[in-house]
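quick one before i forget lol
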Amino acid sequence: MVRDDLYITVPSYFRCPISLDVMKSPVSLSTGVTYDRSSIQRWLDSGNNTCPATMQVLDTKEFVPNANLHRLIQTWSSQNRHNPLDDSSAESASPLSPDKIQLVVKEIGGEEKESDLSKIASFAEESSENRRFLAKMDGFVAMLAALLIHSDDKDLSPPVVELAVRVLDSVSTEFGDFHELKRLLLIPKEKSPNSLPPSLLRVMKQGSSRPESRIAAVRIIQSIAIDAESKLAVAESDGLLLHLVNSIAPRTDPPLIDAVLSCLISISMPKRVKPQLVRLRAIGKLREVLRSPSVPAPTAEKALKLLESVSSCREGMAELCGDSGCVEAVVRKAMKVSDAATEVAVTILWTACYLFRDQKAADAVVRSNGLTRILLLMQSNCSPAVRGMSTDLLRIFRVNSKSCLSSYDTKTTHIMPF
């Protein structure tokens, strides 16, 4: 650790690999990698079954406290408590009670907004009971929404806005009334061409070095896109779609990619949105996600779902069929992710090859050993829908499904793994 009168360098192993903050409650996964408890819990609660740092599939989602590292961080923190880099200050060592939090909430309108919101964020991270307490507090969610709506008028600093976003995201599920949240956050068109608060868009696009803040902003945006009108309003906010699509990149933080895909699946449902995503090269981005050997299964499933949505318009299908690499990536994921992903992948292939009769897509399926995969699917315990579409695909490729199935009898034939 390097120290002088101007700065303190935080040891890298004190920082959570997800949030990049000094860990308050370090816990270790079965892979041996340590994360802050709140960050890894969010990752696992999102349906992921891999270690974010190594992308190894987890044998178990249980984690154990890393007591030795916790003691080291506490010792380091006590020596450097005056330093602003220290997020685990004395306040986190003595959790605030609900009664004290109520007083802090009442003081948010004062000059110490950043300090007050930081205390509330720490309180919310402690437990689901704390988040439920905040969500049910009269006017609390409305107050956070007002901070975001009027942040420019009040000249709020970026750290204050980011804290407001993180707290709002943490309590939104417990709040539960997403129609009310939509009413609080969506700006009427007659007041602004952008339906989303500019501060929320800034956190999503820029944020700080904390991916956690950007993830929180994306999740809030998704949570208020609950009907056709709000999905369209959100999608047409200035620069939103472009930024979300550009976030689907190999170097992007994996939890952020996962959140972005979930958001895009939700807001891509209106017909007007799908061609926009095609023009923004979303299909090429999804191809790279599906090609990645380390992509977590839940992320791959979401990438397939978004690809199905985007390719359901004529422009999207033409783009997909012209991208043989993307078709081949879909074929390779057809049996390697989940039952739900298999059904989506087969639907994409069926639409391109059977419904649209696209020869380029059919050639790509053949090149990627797609016929063998289809035959294996039909021998597996697949759903009736998958079996029906697979039969149609075999007809397209002029394969007699009955004779092929008998020749591929698993009791007498050994099929090489793929």
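fyi The first helix runs from residue 37 to 45.
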